[in-house]
User: What shape does this take?
Amino acid sequence: MSVITISRGTFSGGKRLAECVAGYLGYRCIDREVIVERVAAHGVSQEELRNALDKPPTFLDRLKHKRYLYLALVQAALAEEVREGSVVYHGHCGHLLLKGGGPVLRVRVIAPLEYRIAMAQERLALSRHDVIEYIRRIDSERKKWAQYLYGVDWRDPSLYDLVINLEFIDIQRACDILASTVKHQECFHFDATCQAAMEDLVRASRIKVELALNPGTSNLELEVLCKNGAVRMKGKIYDVAQIEQIQRIATGMEGVTSVDLDELIPPIPA
Assistant: This one.
């Protein structure tokens, strides 16, 4: 069993490929909507969350701290959904959200513009010109989103293990390639080490969520790392009283064995 993430431009065939691979391997296939619904359980507006995940920086800038909260919630929801493996996730930047959670098969699907236009016109009642403009706009927004949040160009092939071009490879053949990679490439087998790494990612992301939702620490944007249950945090705090709350929240998380707060930056005395 493995975790596979599939990133793609709009109407590039990524959803069809994800469904094919999941069916072939007997895995669950999940998309962003599953994650959005899970996050909504925390009282977050689904529409506002979708906007935060879709819109380019001009919109995210207005959200300010909410961006950090939403990303913490999305990462925690995704990590919890895939923690046991045997899952294919097709959604924007899933491989970046799961970074540090063990070897994930990171796939990017690309396709020529004509392929994408044909797929879009099957779904959208738009002219050829409007479809092209729609594809270009969504691609541009996704590029800005990844650059703003992660400092990377999500199209960079070095971020992926496989880049599949559907110009001459059909969905079934692409599906066979991914399934064969999962079956025969040992590093993607979801063994005990991978399971432990994913559990650590779940703990770290849950702590970030609890800190973001707790009134006394909701203004913080901390980096939370976890390895074998040992938690380490980095970032700036605004009140020394927050240290006690951070300690309490982190140590109260199931599976946490120790908490290191030495890298927190205290407020400058007046």
